[in-house]
Amino acid sequence: xxxxxxxxxxxxxxxxxxxxxxxxxxxxxxxxxxxxxxxxxxxxxxxxxxxxxxxxxxxxxxxxxxxxxxxxxxxxxxxxxxxxxxxxxxxxxxxxxxxxxxxxxxxxxxxxxxxxxxxxxxxxxxxxxxxxxxxxxxxxxxxxxxxxxxxxxxxxxxxxxxxxxxxxxxxxxxx
Length: 175
Prior knowledge:
This protein is an alpha+beta fold. Helices cover 17% and strands 31% of the residues.
């Protein structure tokens, strides 16, 4: 049995803050061969996850916000944002069940954010994600501008003033 208490979430968040990518996951499953892949994802506001979909190994995935504030962005094939879904504690949406083949990313809006993710296994790292060709790669200088643009869309769509954004300071993201 694995207990997911506030101390574990705080420790995982501290690890995310110290990681160049500003995120850290903790696998709750023991093997990639298990039929259910379960993990905790800790993210910080300046972390960039390149939009992607799971089409080569089409499996649904679910996210449930445990701490902080995150937003799921859904894109069309041209890279336009079709849906903005804030989720987590204090939001109307606690989590999302996402079908396979949908372009998406998660953007973190609050320090110390953690979400639970689950998807069917087994997990094959060769077919992990199909990266969006219209979005910059993690680690390149354009990623910072793109993340800033996405965060701006989130706040405009949710009617919140731009000033509420946490500053995007990192000049580059590590791959």
